Fold this protein.
Amino acid sequence: MNTQTAKRPMSDNKKNYSEREKVSIFENEFMPHIDSMYNFAYKLTFDEEEAKDLVQDTYLKAFRFITSFEKGTNAKAWLFRILKNSFINDYRKKSKQPAKVDYQEVETYYNSENTDSNLTIDLRSETMQNRIGDEVTNALNSLGVDFRIVIILCDLEGFTYEEMAKILDIPIGTVRSRLHRARNLLKDKLRKYAQSMGYK
């Protein structure tokens, strides 16, 4: 076995924290986000026990690789990335052959900074804030996992494109294109419901 090719997570960026510092980071920077982590996990799994297991696994990994975390940086985004990776890995194992999604058709356009944000719906908009009920939840849950994740991260958790790019480990242009597709898919699913509520 070639030991030089063995994967060692972020070994070049490891910090030399004492045990006391590790505990302090875990308690003061990681634990305040546990509710957000559970909400994210539940929106991905739709199952309370699976969500709890996913959060527990995430926090175990966070402590295990705590020397890769830079104290004072965005702990929430760092934790979300671990949780997302754990979920995707588990999802792929369960499905054995994850669906491949083609994002190329709008990705080039969305690499531009001059995109029109009015082209897609935003769940944070005032008209949607009071309507996140069963119809929206069911529509969101019916989206493919990649689309569901970007909607959750952006429109429900409020991450910026830059933060999402780091969490998802993809270029900002891909974040934009994926979010555009996800919002349009969600809009299509909600069109009939919106018309019944008096929206055009």
Observations:
- Confidence is low (pLDDT under 50) at residues 1-11, 97-131.
- The chain has two domains: 14-95, 104-196.
- The domain at 14-95 is CATH 1.10.1740.10 (Rna Polymerase Sigma Factor; Chain: A).
- DSSP finds ten helices and no strands in the chain.
